[in-house]
Amino acid sequence: xxxxxxxxxxxxxxxxxxxxxxxxxxxxxxxxxxxxxxxxxxxxxxxxxxxxxxxxxxxxxxxxxxxxxxxxxxxxxxxxxxxxxxxxxxxxxxxxxxxxxxxxxxxxxxxxxxxxxxxxxxxxxxxxxxxxxxxxxxxxxxxxxxxxxxxxxxxxxxxxxxxxxxxxxxxxxxxxxxxxxxxxxxxxxxxxxxxxxxxxxxxxxxxxxxxxxxxxxxxxxxxxxxxxxxxxxxxxxxxxxxxxxxxxxxxxxxxxxxxxxxxxxxxx
Length: 268
Known about the structure:
The protein is mostly helical. It contains 8 helices and 2 strands. It has helices at 2-28, 36-57, 75-78, 91-116, 121-143, 158-187, 208-225, 237-267; strands at residues 198-200, 203-205.
């Protein structure tokens, strides 16, 4: 009876360990979802880019003193520094605003993919981040004296350009660049085999226990599958023996991981 009770306790413990590890994998392994801060950034980008592009498209009614000026109240300060916004005949800023709508559409698609855990989420989010960063770099270049920016900076002071144009717009370079750096680790392939490993932040982590266990399994499989010097695969009981080997190796590793976690909690 004591042996039977011990066996039941051991089975129950093994099931609990397996369930806890499955939950851990579900929580930590999310290669098709975006980090929370990138999701929040995409929401903000969709709103702000739509607002900004609509100002350009709705000119002259959106200009200061016109019927729709109350929607873009703060632009009465911005258009005095970034004078492209006040030039209705400037084709460049109009074309970029139309492309802003395309960028917003891709932002929304990436968010939908995120919630559906699509495998295309991360590549789409990376592509949109590149678009956001690069269009801002191009706009700064067009605003500089290297291109046609000199005619749109007349009468500006350095302080005005730094606080009204450079500082607000620099976020559209720094934040997309940070998103690109983090998403790049999700896209790049994993070099090592990690069939029994876990995932964290989209990156596969190797596990020494599983690596050692798999090495032992290979040796045992050779003994089970091959006869003495025959080199032929046997059938029947061999399949059951292999399943038992896999189960024991998995249980051993799970117990080892649980023990390490408990000792770490005890130290804390």
